[in-house]
Amino acid sequence: MNEMNEVRKPPVATTGIIGWLRINLFFNWTNSLITLFVIYCLYQFIPWILDWTIFSADFKYNYLGEQITNQEMCSRNLDPENGGACWAVIYVRFYQFIYGFYPKVEVWRVNLAYFMLAFALLPLLYTKLPYRKYFLYFTYIFPVIAYFLLNGGLGFTEVSTNKWGGLLVTLVLGCTGIALAFPIGIMLALGRRSKLPVISMMCTLFIEFIRGVPLITLLFFGMVMLPLFLPEGIDMDGLVRVLVAVTLFQSAYMAEVIRGGLQAIPPGQYEAAKSLGMSYWRMNLLIILPQAIRISIPPIVNTSIGLFKDTTLVIIVGILDLLGIGRGTLADTNWLGLSYEIYFFVSLVFFIFTFGMSRYSLYLEKKLKTGINMGAD
Amino acid sequence: MKKLLSIFAVVAFAFSAHAGTLDDVKNRGFLKCGVTTGLAGFAAPDDSGEWAGLDADMCRAVAVAVFGDRSKVEFITTTGKSRFPTLASGEVDMLARNTTWTISRDVNLGFEFVGVNFYDGQGFMVPSALGVSSATELDGATVCIQTGTTTELNLADFFRLNGISYEALPIETNDEGKENLFAGRCDVYTTDASGLSSTRAAASNPDKWVVLPEIISKEPLGPLVRHGDHQWGDVVRWSLNAMIIAEELGITSENVDAQMSSNVPEVLRLLGVEGNYGEMLELSNDWAYQIIKQIGNYSESYEANVGPDTPLEIARGLNALWTQGGILYAPPFR
After folding, report:
1. In angstroms, rounded to a whole number, what is the distance separating the alpha carbons of residues A169 and A268?
2. At A248, is the secondary structure helix, strand, or coil?
């Protein structure tokens, strides 16, 4: 009788690795066929890409053991049968990719700014950080510090923004655009939903106008038209003009994203807040916005990632961001024809940043449980 | 749009016509020179972040003329679209940016081309396996052509004049043209000859491609300044001319010191030993000596950046001196 009570194990085919494979990859014959096809493609592709990017690639020296200083010395140009990628171009140009033409003696300032950026982001990203309050103070003053560090002043030698380039420009544009657009976007979203017709109309007009033109147009306007309108003597820096254009563009999109979140808040929340005697600002700051922003996280991150990638458009107004430096490198007669390596590297850097952003947003969503049906009760 | 831009340019110019550009440059302590965002042989950053190329040398020559120091120049990158407003608004003192000298740019946009530092023209590149030796044999070929450019119009004209047909494969960028040609999707790629040379140099096996001898358009590329400031225009013009004259007279960066005791009157005038030509330009009297010493003559700059020994392998051709079969000709230095 004892045997009868023994718990019988489920069939082998439904548990463990085999079970998982059966359910996920070989559920029926179409499923199996697709799986086999994908495996075949990966089998064809992965060894080749690994070989090209790593095993046959030159990093600093070619297969003769010489240090590579131009494209003719790359293994794949010496021996087209055997060579892989020629990463030496990235190695040689790494400084330019990261800092642009920033003077070498002053580069510690950029490094310090990068380092401090990480510190400034820390309390924003991890709410459980000990002593978060003090870290936040630092975050608030970081933009001022970064400005003086990068640009000069307060005893630092001035480094004209013409000398900025590469990842530095990409990060300055991306971070400033995203950081400034967020509060402006919130104000615009609230303004558009305002009951005061003038405010609502002005905000709507601004959003629709900015959203109605491509970013390139705004960049051109900032770069080309603005200096013609400014009176002689007022010389607005090129990077600042681009920053203004990027921020305006991003704020309009951010406003619409947040307005979407605002509209998802059930009217009961407003009524409840008002019945407690809250003012407009208290109601929005304490009740409405926290909920609205919480449900808007995926689209907020979405537009932020979009902006980060759109910063590459500044090449058309003559600012050399990461991609621009890559193109400039391709125009050097020493490195002609290495476009695969350079575009691969640039896309890898962009992928690291955007993938980081998207993973962080997933973490936030999980932490804040944005998926629950709010207002159900 | 063009008309609108030129109106803005004129308005901006009206506001900016005050003290001379030369004084502005001297007071600022460095020259602001507009260049491309990167074009092989003409202006591109090298490994240490220094700008190099034929146009970059032009900028440096002017900096040397004014300050006697080749490093006193800030390169401002401009694109095909942003270059003219950048110059018009005074953000740069001059452009040395592969800009074709045309009547509308010279007159209507309110700029002044001070000379030509490279004679370019539209050419054709084909795979050598095609066995074609002249563009007139290209009947029925598929041609990769950048849309919205003057090259497109020149191409149509050329084929119509020769009574042959072609099929256009429209592309947007030089890179795209390169990829399409190398992949065999078009038989011919057409753009400026200097661009073809850099495309050819970027190929994994340059010998598989030939640039055909026909040049079907005039593209004189030269430095330009804002209209109206003749003193500054003269400085830029004669900085270029000094390099050309130096080649004519056989003065190089190597032998310039020895040439100081030459017995040729024009050499002595150019190097500032005799006469006061520097003063006339409000420069120091050894301005041309410094250009030749620090940058070199035209030939040295050409050979180092685009000449046959560089990957671009552009023969002197039209850019040879008038005494050597080209059309490079500078007014006498007297």
Report:
1. 45
2. helix
Burial A114-142 (b: 16+ CB within 10 A, else e): eebbeebeebeeeeeeeeeeebeeebeeb
Residue A232: what pLDDT?
A: 64
User: What distance in Å separates residue A321's CA from the closest CA in chain B?
Assistant: 11
Instruction: Chain A: give the shortest CA distance to residue B72, in Å.
Output: 14
Does B47 sit within 8 Å of A93, measured CB to CB?
yes
Q: How far is CA A20 from CA A13, A28, A29, A361, in A?
A: 9, 13, 16, 28
A145, part of any domain = no
State whether A70 and A96 are in the same domain: no
Chain A CB contacts of B305 below 8 Å: 333
Per the prediction, chain B carries an average pLDDT of 89
For residue B83, pLDDT beyond 90: no
Bridge-based pairing of strands B73-77 and B31-35 is parallel
Among residues B176, B198, B217, the one where a domain terminates is B217
Is A109 within the bounds of a domain? no
For residue B39, the chain A residues in CB contact (below 8 A) are 331
Residue A250 pLDDT level (bands cut at 50, 70, 90):
very high
pLDDT at A7: 78
Question: Is B330 inside any structural domain?
Answer: no
Same domain, B87 and B196: no
Torsions phi, psi of B296, nearest 5?
105, 175
- Based on the domain organization, do A229 and A308 belong to the same domain? yes
Each residue's pLDDT tens digit, A329-350 = 988 888 888 888 999 999 999 9
- Provide the pLDDT for residue A375: 44
Query: Tens digit of pLDDT for each residue in B197-247?
Result: 888 887 878 888 998 888 889 889 999 999 989 999 999 999 999 999 999
Q: What ipTM was reported for this prediction?
A: 0.82
Structural domain containing residue A66: 2-78
Which sign, positive or negative, has the C-alpha torsion B249, B252, B253, B255?
A: negative
**CATH number for the domain including B22?**
3.40.190.10
d(Cα A359, Cα A8) in Å, to the nearest integer? 41
Residues A182 and A317 placed together within one structural domain of the fold: yes
On whether both A202 and A60 belong to a single domain, the answer is no
Q: Are residues B8 and B21 in the same domain?
A: yes
Phi, psi of A201 (to 5 degrees): -70, -40
Burial A38-73 (b: 16+ CB within 10 A, else e): eeeeeeeeeeeeeebbeeebbeeebeeeeebebbeb
In this complex, do A332 and B44 lie within 8 Å of one another by their Cβ atoms? Answer: yes
Short-list B232, B140, B141, B234, CA closest to B181: B141
Place of tokens 């600002």: A281
Same domain, B112 and B28: yes
Chain-chain contact of A329 with B45 (C-beta, under 8 angstroms): yes
Residue of chain B whose Cα is closest to the Cα of A70? B47
Q: Which of A211, A220, A209, A214 is nearest to A242 (CA)?
A: A220
User: A331 vs B38: CB contact, 8 Å cut-off?
Assistant: yes
Regarding whether B251 and B106 lie in a shared domain, the answer is yes
Same-domain pairing of A282 and A166: yes
Q: What is the number of domains present in chain B?
A: 2
* CATH code of A191's domain: 1.10.3720.10
